[in-house]
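FW: tagging you since you asked about this chain on Friday. Here's the raw sequence from the shared folder, copied in full. Didn't touch anything.
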Amino acid sequence: MKVVPDTSVVIDGRVSDRVESGDFADATISVPEAVVAELEAQANDGHDSGWDGLEELQRLAGHADDGEIDLEYVGERPDAIERGHASEGEIDALIRDLAADLDATFVTSDIVQSEVAEAKGLAVEYISPETEEVGTLSVEEYFDDQTMSVHLKTEVAPKAKRGAIGDMHYETIAEDALAESEMKELAQEITNAAKESHEGFIELSEPGMTIVQFRDYRIAIAQPPFSDGVEITAVRPIVQTDLDDYEFADELRDRMKERQRGILISGSPGAGKSTFAQAVAHFLVDSDYSVKTMEKPRDLQVGPEITQYTELGGEMAMTADSLLMVRPDYTIYDEVRKTDDFEVFADMRLAGVGMIGVVHATRAIDALQRLVGRVELGMIPQVVDTVVYIEAGEVHTVYDVATEVKVPHGLMEEDLARPVIVIKDFETGEPAYEIYTFNRQVVTVPLNDEDDGDEAGVDRIARQEIEREIRSIARGHVDVELKSQNSAVVYVEDDDISTVIGKGGGRIQDVENRLGIDIDVRTHDEKPPGAGSGSGGAGGQSGGGDASGGQPGQIVQPEITSQHVIVPVEGHAGETVEVQADEEYLFTATVSRGGEVQVSRGSAIAEELERAIDRRRQITVVPS
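HL: got it, structure written out here
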């Protein structure tokens, strides 16, 4: 009997099974070189399938040494062009042609290969892939009723996160560290179980990282070179909840049943976001809504009536396109993190699908702010109308999001009316935040701001914007005093008066029009004692005093232009220096030949430096 196996049946290990069962006794097993090439490529790419196939070839070699079969390698290795077209069936065609030339039985576990081979008139033996019942995995023995996750790593004692939601503790659960051989055995057991059992599947398989979903467990296996040692992290949900277990349950139920919504479920890691999302999913299904999920990896524990989708072709955007054809009432998106995720979430919501997104955030407002810059500002309330913040497994805060055309809180002039996103406390109905465009910048203003004493958030923002506008014109020191919600006095150096006002008052009028605030320009000599709360521009003034706690440095006055924040530095051209604010490190930079450090406005460093200037902190340059 002559047998030609293809790649699928070699990977499955089914050829040696047939030899051991006697079905292929005394057979000549002709392994195509094309099969060896495929297995070698898969193993080099770090895929377990390649290693499994190579182990099967070694088993067949052992049977040949024992005289049970004749083993030979036939055909030519595929060239680069044929390997490049492997997905189009070029390699499969080579293997079938060899079986025809040798007048051998073609053995495969690939149903498409089987059908094509039969159509070509070959003798075919199709061996369907088997699934096996898998018992308890070794890693499961580390879990108890209060264990959320188990963390195993080579040469490290096993650890686990245990406790109640919101009160988890990372603790050592065994004294003896695991050897590398033990870790590899555990990893192999997990991947084998995912392949053999209908209760599991491999979610992700990349060189160095494999993610397995097995029953209720999501297991990540990291290996060198991706990690510095073999590491296994197994996670499972420890509680199943119902929407009735949460505060505002009735109101949230009514809200979701009223019409399709855009909801963000936010909270810090381990706070119980996914558990709440699962409770919402079960409620929606029980309320006769069609519900799907979008996850990578698939992690939510939901019933079989909810289909869980992952990336299609490596992109969630393609998954979204497919879901729009399925037309679910609600889709749960777990987790929304990157810009692409927010864009897909917004596209589906604007297409009329109810969307529930799970987002990492340390405050409820932070979840909404992550949409700013990723979704057009005016569209945010149409994308997200409800924010639910979870803390310690409970609903801590719920916000209602809507747009109103109004004068922002704290401003007075009617001509300052604009679209404002109003975030209201769901329980009290009182506004908590406003988001709107102020001087071409999007600002989020807390309406119960107590951080700066009597100065409201909008006042602080207005003062800072006035300072920035005037400092981009003036070269000397600038102070700003807010007289009311729609007027201010700006104090500048004598030499800057004409520059700031401009010919016929045109320049300051432009600033007033942009900011919507009346501005009176005066010199510092006219400033009453105690008036003004701004910060300096730059005059190149520096000192060699004892800045930053006894360390030699220069006290400088940065200049803010329309494009840069310029820090003057004397005597250190080409050297590396530290820029500090009130002795606190801000950043390190190299001084230019012209004796200055330039930071582009809009960058994170520039924003931090400008905040320090706004707060009148002493800016010091210290040689590093």
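FW: The first strand starts at residue 2 and ends at 5.
HL: agreed, and The chain has five domains: 2-126, 138-235, 243-446, 457-526, 542-623.
FW: great, closing this out.
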